[in-house]
Design brief:
By secondary structure, the protein is an alpha+beta fold. The chain contains ten helices and 13 strands. Strand 9 and strand 10 form a beta hairpin.
C-alpha cells in the first residue's frame, strides 16, 4: 500500500541585511566557513541551558550547486531517559540522518523532534510549526556563526502580504491581539492608506501587551518610518510601511488568529491570509518518512518565487 503524500506548510522569512554597504546579508559565505567538509556534528551542538541537557543541533545539511542556497535539518536533542536515539559515535560523523537517529544506542542522547529549513542570502523558508517562534532558528544561526560574524547579527522577519485581491486602500482596520488586549491601527482621514503612524504613536506600555520581546519592540521604535515618509512618495510609501510594520508584528505573534485585518466592505482576514506561506505535498517512503530530496526541491522553488516577487 502506497503511503499518502505529506502535506507540509512552509513559512517564509526575510533575512535582514546587517550591512549598510552590501546588497544582501552575506550569510551563506559565513555558513560556508563553519559548515566545512571536515566539520563534525558535535561542533554544532548548542546547549539550551547550562543546567539542562537539552540541545539544538543542525544535524544534516546539503549545499546546492554553486552554493546558491543551503538545505538543513534541525534536531532537538534531549537526555536519553526522555524518550529516537543518538549514540555518541554519531556526533563524530560529518552529518546525521533520521535513519541514524532511529537506530541509535538507547543509553545515550535521544532525538525529540526535527524540522527543515532552506536559506539563501535574502530569505529563509521552513516547515517549523506555526506556533513556534522563529527565534529558535535565529538564535541557533547566530550562535553557529558566532566565531565568524563579528558584530553582525542576523534577524529573521516574517514575510507578510495583503490578502489576495485586497488593495491597501480597502483596509479599514488592523488588530493585533495578544497579552489579553486588543490594539487597533486604523487609517486616518488624512492618510487613508497609512497604518504606520497609528502604530508608531502607540505607547511602549500598549505595544508590550502585543510583543513580549523587548528587542523587537525597540526594533519597531527604531524602524524610522517617519523619516521614510520624507523620502518617498505617499503612493509608494504605504505598501512598504505595511510590509515593515506587519512583518515586525507577525514575527512575534505565532497565533494566526492574533492578527485581524478588516476591510471597508466588512470582510475580515486573519494572519493565515496575511503571512506568506505555501503548502506543498511531499511523498513518503515505505517507512513513512518524507522524501527529503523532494522537500529540498520544493523549498528551492519557494525561495526562487520569493526572489522573483521581491524583484518584481
Amino acid at each position: 500500500m502506497t503511503n499518502q503524500p505529506a502535506k507540509i506548510k512552509l513559512r517564509a522569512f526575510k533575512i535582514e541585511n546587517p550591512s549598510l554597504t552590501e546588497a544582501h546579508s552575506g550569510i551563506l559565505l559565513l555558513l560556508k566557513e563553519v559548515l566545512t567538509e571536515n566539520s563534525i556534528a558535535s561542533e554544532r551542538r548548542m546547549t539550551l541551558n547550562e543546567d539542562d541537557a537539552d540541545e539544538d543541533l543542525l544535524s544534516n545539511f546539503v549545499w546546492h550547486q554553486n552554493d546558491t542556497y543551503l538545505f538543513s535539518m534541525m534536531l532537538r536533542v534531549i537526555p536519553a531517559e526522555n524518550g529516537g536515539v543518538i549514540s555518541e559515535e554519531l556526533f563524530n560523523q560529518h552529518t546525521i540522518t533520521i535513519a541514524d537517529v532511529i537506530t541509535g544506542n538507547p543509553t545515550q542522547s535521544q532525538y525529540k523532534n526535527h524540522f527543515y529549513f532552506a536559506l539563501n542570502n535574502n530569505h529563509l523558508v521552513t516547515n517549523l510549526a506555526g506556533n513556534i517562534n522563529i527565534d529558535r532558528v535565529q538564535t541557533y544561526l547566530n550562535w553557529l556563526l558566532n566565531p565568524v560574524r563579528g558584530e553582525r547579527y542576523f534577524q529573521l522577519t516574517e514575510l507578510t502580504k495583503l490578502p489576495d485581491g485586497v488593495p491597501l486602500s480597502q483596509v479599514s482596520q488592523i488588530e493585533f491581539i495578544g497579552g489579553g488586549g486588543v490594539v487597533s491601527a486604523s487609517p486616518t482621514s488624512r492618510e487613508p492608506t497609512t497604518i504606520s503612524t497609528n502604530l508608531f504613536n502607540l505607547t511602549d506600555e500598549v505595544l508590550s501587551h502585543i510583543i513580549s520581546d523587548a528587542d523587537s519592540l525597540q526594533q519597531i521604535r527604531n524602524s524610522q518610518l517617519i523619516e521614510a515618509k520624507l523620502k518617498r512618495k505617499p503612493k509608494d510609501l504605504a505598501q512598504e510601511e505595511f510590509q515593515r510594520v506587519m512583518g515586525a508584528i507577525a514575527t512575534n505573534i505565532t497565533n494566526d488568529s492574533g492578527i485581524i485585518l478588516r476591510t471597508k466592505d466588512g470582510n475580515k482576514y486573519t494572519g493565515e491570509t496575511v503571512k506568506v506561506k505555501k503548502e506543498v505535498e511531499v511523498e513518503r517512503t515505505t517507512g513513512n518518512r518524507i522524501v527529503e530530496e523532494q522537500l529540498k526541491q520544493k523549498m528551492e522553488i519557494f525561495l526562487s518565487e520569493l526572489r522573483a516577487q521581491e524583484n518584481a
